[in-house]
Amino acid sequence: MDLPTLRKLVALDENDPLSRFALGRKVHEIGTPEALAEAANHLRFANQHAPNHLATYHILAQVLIRSGEKDDARRVLEEGIKRVAGIGEGMGRDLGPIMREMLATL
């Protein structure tokens, strides 16, 4: 989905964590400091309101690292890794090794 469509989707229901995740993920691709700050805002909201959505931990940590917020990224990754360990087989489990690698680089 393109950025204008995602912004419209969030405008329809700003409390939908998955729409906010999608917008945050898309905005983060822009890469400017302003875009990273906006992305972090959407992703933090999504993480707070849908803590079992494992991809949010991964993308939020990327944004925080790019923003120089390594301590916050470390906390997000540690929590994401705990969440992955608590699930059985299924979606998101493949993010565990990726997040552990990211954590090791901090």
Main features:
globular; 75% helix; mainly alpha; 106 residues; 0% strand
Task: Please explain how this structure is put together.
With 106 residues, the protein is mainly alpha-helical. It is built from six helices and no strands. The protein has helices at 3-12, 17-28, 33-49, 54-66, 70-85, 95-105. The model has no long low-confidence stretch (mean pLDDT 93).
**Residue fraction in strands:** under 5%
Indicate the structural class: mainly alpha
Q: Could you estimate the helical fraction of the residues in percent?
A: over 70%
The largest sheet, given as strand count, sense and whether it forms a barrel, is: none
Low-pLDDT stretches: none
Helix-strand pattern, N to C? Answer: HHHHHH
Average pLDDT across residues?
93
* Number of beta-strand segments: 0
Q: Rg to the nearest angstrom?
A: 13 Å
What's this model, at a glance?
The chain contains 6 helices and no strands.
Secondary structure: elements and pairs:
Layout (H helix, E strand, L loop, with lengths): L2 H10 L4 H12 L4 H17 L4 H13 L3 H16 L9 H11 L1
